Amino acid sequence: MLDVRRLRLLRDLARLGTIAAVARAHAYTASAVSQQLAALQREAGVPLLEHTGRGVTLTPAATALVRHAETILAALEAATATLAAARTGLSGAVRIGAFPSAVPTLLPAALVALGRDHPALDLMVTELDPVDMPDALRDGRLDVALWHDYDIAPVESDPGVDSVRLLDEKVFLAVPADGPPDDRPGGRPGGRPDDAIASTRDAAWIVGSPGTLCHTVAMRVCQAAGFTAGVRHHADDFTAVLALVAAGQGVALVPELGATRPPADVRLVPLDVHRRTRIAYRRGAGGHPVVAACVAALESSTRAYLAPPAQE
């Protein structure tokens, strides 16, 4: 019989690439991970790892076993969900991950609703960049995550993660509002929003930190327009980004949730680029009553946030 905990280690080795990385993810020593993988190989009765220099690679049998491991781990999540549904009431810790611009916009009303309807839940929020969400879900550091990508920088589907669509947002080019129209991106008479990025070829850019999804998107948008962005500043908070734009420090990309209250000295040019937000959770966990409650609360809070203001 194959040990599920060892299967999880093999799955993570396929994902992370090194035994040292797996050890860090599970707070084990590298020696302990190696011993567990060796025991799994004995259980399997076939070679699973090949030593290549100081590292290891998976054999074809191990790669096939990883695919089965994903299915097995998802089935265990589903079984846990079934048992949880048989209990009365919702309780326990719920770890929710969110990207920065969702925390002050979509999340507060959802947290209020969850706390009101399920007071025994212990709600804990962690702000993360989307690139870190899948690993945090897989490792159990998160139970639910607000996770996004962009149509110009789509994220590959993760076999260990399921999700439901929540929101599509338009992305804007944020530019200083001063100056004559002919000098402003997208502001030429008869100009199209599609021309806006090309007109920033010689502008200074404000982008996210290297390695973040926002940084990748800014680079790709400029590359699609035929140039490399001249980066002057790195900032990950859209309030800070817009303040820098207002101070004449450069131009930037800002999605709708990050541009709810732009400074008066900033003009927002709509682009044909969209950010796509999903509610993500471990594969198989969608039927868990806590996950279902979080999904329902986030969907409701998003509808309320997007609803037009009531007429007085």
Briefly characterize the structure.
The chain has 312 residues and is an alpha/beta fold. The chain has 3 domains: 4-85, Arc Repressor Mutant, subunit A, CATH 1.10.10; 92-161 and 280-306, 3-Layer(aba) Sandwich (D-Maltodextrin-Binding Protein, domain 2); 169-276, D-Maltodextrin-Binding Protein, domain 2 (3-Layer(aba) Sandwich). Helices cover 39% and strands 24% of the residues.
Q: What does this protein structure show overall?
A:
- The chain is α/β, with parallel strands linked by helices and 312 residues long.
- The protein has 3 domains: 4-85, Arc Repressor Mutant, subunit A, CATH 1.10.10; 92-161 and 280-306, D-Maltodextrin-Binding Protein, domain 2, CATH 3.40.190; 169-276, D-Maltodextrin-Binding Protein, domain 2 (3-Layer(aba) Sandwich).
- Helix content is 39%, strand content 24%.
- It contains 10 helices and 10 strands.
- A 6-stranded mixed beta sheet has the order 4-3-5-10-6-9. A two-stranded antiparallel ribbon has the order 1-2. The chain has a two-stranded parallel ribbon with strand order 7-8.
- Helix 5 links the parallel strand 3 and strand 4 (121-127).
- Helix 5 packs across helix 10.
- The chain starts with a helix and ends in a 6-residue tail after the last helix.
- Pfam families: HTH_1, LysR_substrate.
- Residues 176-195 are annotated as: Disordered.
- Residues 2-59 form the HTH lysR-type domain.
- Keywords: DNA-binding, Transcription, Transcription regulation.
- This is DNA-binding transcriptional LysR family regulator.
